[in-house]
Design brief:
The structure holds 2 protein chains of 2 kinds.
Chain A (H helix, E strand, L loop, with lengths): L4 E3 L2 E4 L5 E6 L6 E7 L5 E8 L2 E4 L8 E4 L6 E5 L8 E8 L10 E2 L3 E5 L1
Parallel strand pairs in A: 2-11
Antiparallel strand pairs in A: 1-3, 3-8, 4-5, 4-9, 5-6, 7-8, 9-10, 9-11
Chain B lengths: L9 E5 L4 E6 L7 E7 L6 E7 L4 E3 L3 E6 L4 E6 L8 E11 L2 E8 L3 E6 L1
Classes of the chains: A mainly beta, B mainly beta.
């Protein structure tokens, strides 16, 4: 049973380009969470999605960032016109249900974005 | 403006020693806590959790203590091994009416280094 799959694992973008990060949740999971981790910091919640719905985007920057989780296919975190401050590790997590305990939230291995 | 990365607390121990990693929380309403281990270049990995109706919980080589009076958690690792070297985070899921949700607030983290 494959875990949470994220790709690309590493992505380099020039300032002003777009970055697209993909997350395939664990099989059977319909709840996806995106987190961002800046160097030397803990993970910060960005957005919570279910299939075709954004449930909570309180951690998303107001501009340039968007997320989706379509009916078919992976969840996508999209960053437009990237700036150096967007350089971070972006982690996806999934769960089977909205109600959860620690051992039912599964994290992917992350996508490391570097903006040059 | 952009946030500045903070230097994480560090703990350096010899193999075989016991390690104690601390975490403070601020929300009195928090009733469930999770400890994660994050190895370099990887996503967070669940270690152990505890609910607020307990003050101690034990797992394999790990014990979590909860002091609600001072809003403090600790993770104790017995007979620490080089493979325990990682960053350790406590996390607090969003609490909604007594049910925990997958939106997590992570603590600052502690870098544990185990010397052979």
């Amino acid at each position: 049973n494959a875990g949470v799959m994220q790709n690309p694992r590493h992505l380099v973008r020039r300032r002003g380009q777009e970055a697209r990060l993909r997350c395939s949740p664990m099989k059977g999971h319909s709840h996806v969470y995106w987190y961002r981790q800046l160097p030397e910091e803990g993970l910060k919640f960005m957005v919570y999605l279910q299939k075709e719905n954004i449930i909570d985007e309180s951690g998303m920057p107001k501009e340039r960032f968007s997320a989706e989780f379509p009916k078919e296919g992976p969840s996508i975190l999209r960053i437009q016109q990237v700036v150096r401050g967007d350089s971070a590790a972006y982690f996806c997590a999934s769960s089977w249900d909205r109600k959860t305990s620690g051992n039912t939230i599964y994290f992917g291995e992350g996508s490391w974005l570097t903006v040059v | 403006g952009e946030s500045v990365g903070l230097h994480l607390p560090t703990l350096s121990v010899q193999e075989g020693d016991n390690s104690i990693i601390n975490c403070a929380y601020s929300n009195s309403a928090s009733d469930y806590f999770i400890w994660y281990k994050q190895e370099s270049g990887k996503g967070p990995q669940f270690i152990i959790d505890i609910r607020s109706n307990m003050d101690k919980r034990q797992g394999q080589r790990v014990t979590v203590l909860l002091n609600k009076t001072v809003k403090h958690l600790s993770l104790q690792i017995a007979a620490t091994q080089p493979g325990d070297s990682a960053v350790y985070f406590c996390a607090d899921p969003l609490n909604a009416g007594g049910t925990s949700y997958g939106k997590l607030t992570f603590g600052q983290g502690t870098i544990l280094t185990v010397h052979p």
